[in-house]
Design a protein that fits this description.
This protein is an alpha+beta fold. It has 3 domains: about 120 residues, Sandwich (Immunoglobulin-like), CATH 2.60.40; about 220 residues, Purple Acid Phosphatase, chain A, domain 2 (4-Layer Sandwich), CATH 3.60.21; about 90 residues, no CATH class. Helices cover about 20% and strands about 20% of the residues. It is built from 11 helices and 24 strands. The strands form 5 sheets. Strands 14-13-12-11-22-23-24 form a 7-stranded mixed β-sheet.
Length: about 525
């Protein structure tokens, strides 16, 4: 319960819902039929009928007074119950204002000001075939999932146990009368999480690889295709970093008819037609280690874009499969020199690599040509030391074999990747691997960008599901949510996002909700936010 007026000389009230004093940022409550208020003094009941009012808030912020019934709870004069006069629950999908003013206690204490408590009633969400009653079979929900990481081989695939519940989830999305769109926000197919000693395509083509992933995960792909074939729910695919090379034709070969959104090779973002304030993308566009990178084109002689995160993921996969063994071989030492700002940044780059390789050691030697590629123009096999910055004996200059120029070309790389607000190189190098860095980009790239009109941002990529709010320069509420992941081993997995726009022109709130699916098919709400006054 929340309280108002903690001063002991004043009348104090506690309410059994979270409250907000901002009309544009109402608290969100689950559906209920009444509110309980508890005061610190016996009330003068003659002041109650005029002192307590309930209003429904319309989309243009008009207030429509609701008829209410006010009852004492038991024989106490300190506790009262408020409900609508029709005895029905508060209407789902609506914003209300509870106004408390001019109340007095028997002893003469009073509230020192008028309190307006704004709250929005969330929908009783479900994916059942009967749907959400207050939406009346209306298709308006946008469901977003990401980071499924379907693999070609269950020996090292990150999703096996969660495949069956994923199929159940997709079947429920298919049957729901309320879902309008299903968005796959990247990393549907995993072309990175493969042990170093495996040739990715095994002598075949990328399209063959994609088809082998589909074959290995046939029930999942079938479930997606059933939704597409029904043509009731629009299915949109946005590329991620683990499927950065998988092109439009590859995806169409296993999911014919799926909608795809791309802007630069390996990147894309999506805004539903009916919700222009919403943008969905994977999030690797802003990640120094995972965004498309042209640094190796002098080696591949192609328009390659594989970033350094690919090589780290190959190492990390082998480390996990080997039980993360203790490394017997020390990493070569790289020392800071005074040869300019870019050399200092390569030193920072080396320190990040040092931490990653230390955390995910492998049995293989640093100079063993153990990383077999045959992908994106890379035809050779590479050693871990081919990726790490190094200094030659007697030479202070920090050099790299792969990704030579990655520091110097960062600004141009961001321009090519359509990054709206440029990220400083040192920030990108040092913080790029942290989920919080990606979270921050929702504000930097969109909410606080005067050239952006976005109020809702959904990213994936980090595997850390969360929902956060902020205010932009216009003091408007914004909602950022990370859709999490469906891989088997994660602190929180099988998560998804649902955006529910205004149910009609008169209703104020839209909802951005984060949920978790379970092995048994139950759905748990992890967070909910209401956002008002979007177009």
């Amino acid at each position: 319960m929340d309280s108002k007026n903690t001063n002991s000389s004043l009348l104090n009230v506690k309410i059994d819902i979270p409250f907000s004093d901002k009309i544009g940022d109402p608290s969100v409550i689950d559906n209920k039929s009444s509110l309980n208020l508890v005061f610190n003094e016996d009330l003068d009941m003659s002041t109650v009928s005029d002192g307590l009012k309930l209003y429904k808030i319309t989309a243009d912020n008009n207030e429509i007074e609701e008829d209410i019934i006010i009852d004492k709870i038991g024989n106490s004069l300190k506790a009262i119950n408020i409900r609508k006069s029709d005895n029905l629950k508060f209407t789902e999908g609506e914003e209300y204002k509870l106004s408390i003013k001019n109340l007095r206690s028997v002893g003469g204490k009073s509230l020192n000001e008028e309190f307006n408590n704004y709250f929005a009633v969330d929908y009783s969400f479900n994916l059942d075939s009967e749907g959400i009653s207050d939406l009346n079979d209306k298709r308006s929900l946008v469901v977003c999932i990401s980071d499924i990481h379907l693999g070609a081989n269950d020996t090292y695939s990150e999703i096996t146990k969660n495949r069956e519940p994923l199929v159940s989830f997709l079947n429920q999305v298919r049957a729901s009368p309320n879902v309008k769109e299903l968005v796959i926000a990247g990393d549907l197919i995993d072309e990175w999480f493969i042990p170093m000693n495996k040739n990715t395509f095994n002598g075949k083509t990328q399209k063959d690889f994609v088809k082998s992933v589909a074959f290995n995960n046939k029930p999942v792909i079938d479930a997606f295709n059933n939704i597409i074939k029904d043509n009731n729910v629009k299915v949109t695919y946005v590329p991620g970093n683990h499927d950065i090379l998988i092109d439009q034709d590859d995806i169409q070969s296993i999911m014919p008819g799926v909608s795809q959104t791309r802007d630069v090779k390996g990147l894309g973002s999506y805004t539903p037609e009916d919700i222009p304030e919403l943008i969905i993308e994977h999030g690797h566009r802003y990640n120094f280690y995972c965004a498309p990178d042209p640094s190796n084109r002098h080696i591949t002689k192609t328009d390659s874009i594989l970033p350094p995160g690919y090589f780290f993921t190959r190492m990390a996969t082998s480390s996990v499969m080997q039980g993360r063994p203790k490394r017997d071989e020390d990493l070569p030492v790289v020392t800071k020199n005074g040869l300019g700002v870019d050399q200092y940044r390569y030193f920072l780059y080396w320190n990040v690599w040092k931490g990653l390789v230390t955390d995910f050691p492998v049995n293989d030697g640093l100079d063993e040509k153990i990383i077999h590629t045959s992908i994106d123009g890379f035809t050779d096999s590479y050693a871990i030391n081919d990726v790490l910055p190094y200094q030659e004996s007697g030479d202070d200059i920090i050099k790299v074999n792969l990704f030579d120029g990655i520091i110097e070309n960062w600004d141009e790389r961001q321009k090519s990747n359509l990054v709206h607000v440029k990220i400083p190189i040192e920030d990108a190098v040092l913080r790029g691997a942290f989920a919080s860095f990606l979270d921050d980009q929702s504000g930097i790239q969109f909410f606080n960008n005067p050239n952006s009109d976005k109020r809702i941002v959904i990213f994936g990529h980090s595997h850390e599901a969360r929902i956060m709010t902020s205010l932009n320069d216009k003091q408007e509420k914004n909602v950022y949510v990370n859709s999490g992941t469906w891989i088997d081993k994660n602190k929180c997995t099988m998560t998804f996002v649902v955006v529910i726009p205004q149910k009609c022109n008169e209703s104020a709130p839209s909802y951005v909700n984060l949920y978790q699916y379970s092995q048994s098919g139950d759905i748990k709400k992890l967070g909910s936010q209401a956002i008002t006054n979007i177009k």
